[in-house]
Amino acid sequence: MEAISVFKLLGFFVIFTHLHLITGTVTYDRRSLIINGERRILISGSIHYPRSTPEMWEDLVIKAKNGGLDVIDTYVFWNVHEPSPGIYDFTGRYDIVRFIKTVARNGLYVNLRIGPYVCAEWNFGGFPVWLKYVPGISFRTDNEPFKAAMQGFTRKIVEMMKAENLFESQGGPIILSQIENEYGAQRKSYGAAGKAYINWAAKMAAELNTGVPWSMCKEVDAPDPVINTCNGFYCDTFTPNKPYKPAIWTEAWSGWFTEFGAPIEQRPVPDLAFAVARFVQKGGSFFNYYMYHGGTNFGRTSGGPFITTSYDYDAPIDEYGLIREPKYGHLTELHRAIKLCEPAFFSSDAIYIPLGQRQQAYVYEGNGNCAAFLSNFETEFAVRVLFRNRHYKLPPWSISILPDCKNVVFNTAKVVSQTSGMQMVRTGSRLKSWESHHEDISTLANGPSLSSFGLMEQINITRDTSDYLWYSTSINISPSETIIREGRKATLTVQSRGHGVHIFVNGRHLGSAYGSRETTRFTANAHVDLQGGTNIISLLSMAAGLPNVGTHFESRDTGILGPVSLGGLDQGTIDLSRGPWTYKVGLNGETMNLNSPHGTSFVDWSRVSFVNHHQQPLKWYKAYFDTPKGNEPLALDMKSMVRGQVWVNGQSIGRYWTKHAKGKCSPCKYPGAFRPGKCQTGCNVPTQRWYHVPRSWLNPRRNLLVLFEEVGGNISRISLVKRTQANVCSSTFEHHPTISNWQIESSGETSMLRDTKVRLQCGIGQSISEIKFASFGTPFGSCGSFQHGTCHAPNSLELIQKSCVGQESCEVMASNDYFAMDPCPNVLKRLLIEAVCSIKPN
Ligand code: GAL
């Protein structure tokens, strides 16, 4: 056993009393942030304001608050705020002040991670693309043009916040800010210049005098007074770089992001809760779920390339703003348990007591308070441990929390919270009046375009104003060429640095090819029917989200950089790369704003006949729909389409791509270290099929849907769906004073221990229409496939039906009293229920 020394304790209380006297400030010491003299264990969650709509913000914040959060964390997204140098946008989804005020109004704090490099699977990591073209710039290093721009934006944000009194030092909600992001991972490649840059960034930030501390995540060299913080799936082994800094976990990854073509990564909540409890038991006093609500990469904001439009992240609140159970509920219980430990937690340092080979206790005791965390790191089996003369059975890979050093109020592996199954159901609202317009490529050679000898880099030309850049060239072929005479095909080879290309020769689409997030370089081959005379080669190069991770953003190249060659001719293979090329930025439809309600009138549209509908590439489509009644979140089912972008009433829903997910989807067990790839779902189906349409973007009638399809697809199958709860499952054990098991160790004082209620709750506007399964006894299985065990109270179903059917929510007790019988005396019983939720009958 290692006890803390008297000296340490004394030091702790001296600092503690001293800081108590300071008000109106946020300071810190080795144990925690101290807000106006008060210490708190701060529970935080990331919600990125542009990834939802202002109309959703309040509800998200309230859900976060009800989930036990104290802090909302957000990055600041430079590229949406400063689209051109000195031109700012803080409107709509980008109204950061409104977002922060929404958080404040609900009594929560804010961690403002200004960056301004943010990574975040966000286009170009949050850097405005114009920054790449500032002469002499070198990103994220000791470079004057870069530092000037970074300082300019950081100052701009700080001043905006100050003007609105948003820092805690001014009475506002912001208690912490971040400068840079995970620089540690890149520092090696920058050498001494990187170190100088980090020192400069810290000094620059500190001199902005916000009155609240600054942090740098994953940067072990963060200079004082900046706090270096941890990001990861687990952060319990993290120690700050100075003994007087607190352990802060800025990114506790609640799930993971998704890329088109990959499965969905899920992180089981028992493991997430275990990770958090591990951090807190070792003295960590601030942790942030990245993400608490992931949301949507609307428009062209997703990073990448190929990050999906959904940024759901398997977060406790799902992409659509609905609570994800059991993740949300289980974490809420965890937060409650942690908060019960707060008085003891701040009354001493942790005392470590080994309980077994892979079992430990961390105890906080002082001022008459005592809290303990009992952990079991075994992945295969539960272990019985002795702690302060009582026995506790710890499930594998779990921590029990004892806020009074006696009673277990929470075990990270014991999920009692309800599980909810969500479904996408068709709405009655039909998409009607379909019309199409073909993107005209015959005029590519005319109009405003750029010419060069040799191939040019894509972003340099588009400045990322569009995903698309046309590369066109022509080649004269003599009618006497053998392949022409013999009717054989030539081979066109296109090497690209990303991210995709559609090949057209003489106006015909001959194929498409794509890179991947890991390797943006790829080679496309097409077999070409050449004609005698002039042949036009038109390559539509596509950039689908600029990379968000790494170094030297100034030298990132995209597009068709060659070689481009034509093989099979009499003279062999000819290199077209150095020849004359013309470029056209974007699509005609984009120039004409075809995606917006006023732009659709600029061109002729043709009625779409579903009978003779010919699937063609590069087509614009439009249709209208009325808004379905109710308030369930809405989405477009795009499964029948291939690739493109979609807009509703001129608002961009995002890029869609029906790419099937390749991966390893097998049942996943929570014990053992988590990493992406461990718990995948959704293999062999499109990675993303549904695209969130925020209700606030809709009018009651005649909403305009526009989409641009690059390849082809069946528009008649596109539909508007709503997200509702399909079923709920809930389980709890009875309270049994004499049976010793890991759930119930003693007849405790704490209410949660005795809480043997099962609560079922359907979604908004729904009620419980059916009980599919109910058993008080020894039932087993998982939600959707529960089974009776050897012990079963025969009246279970009937009783639960009586209490719950027709209700929006209901509570029942797992007790012999409630069922008026004991189906198997001396056996610990549980109650398992599966209920169906349906729209409430009027
Ligand atoms: C972190 C980064 C975040 C985000 C996350 C993955 O390394 O700081 O911005 O990209 O990874 O989702």
| Tally of domains | 5
Which oligomerization state do the chains in this entry correspond to?
A: single chain
Shape annotation = globular
Percent of residues in beta strands: 25-35%
Give the number of helices. 15
Radius of gyration: 30 Å
Count all strands and give the number: 44
Strand order of the largest sheet: 4-5-6-7-8-9-10-12
**Name of the CATH first level of the largest domain:** Alpha Beta
Helical residue percent? Answer: 10-25%
Present as ligands are: beta-D-galactopyranose
Mean of the pLDDT scores?
Answer: 92
The separation of the N and C termini measures: 64 Å
At the fourth CATH level, what is the homologous superfamily of the largest domain? Glycosidases
Tell me the major beta sheet: 8 strands, parallel, barrel
Uncertain residue ranges: 1-23, 738-754
Tell me the CATH architecture of the largest domain: Alpha-Beta Barrel
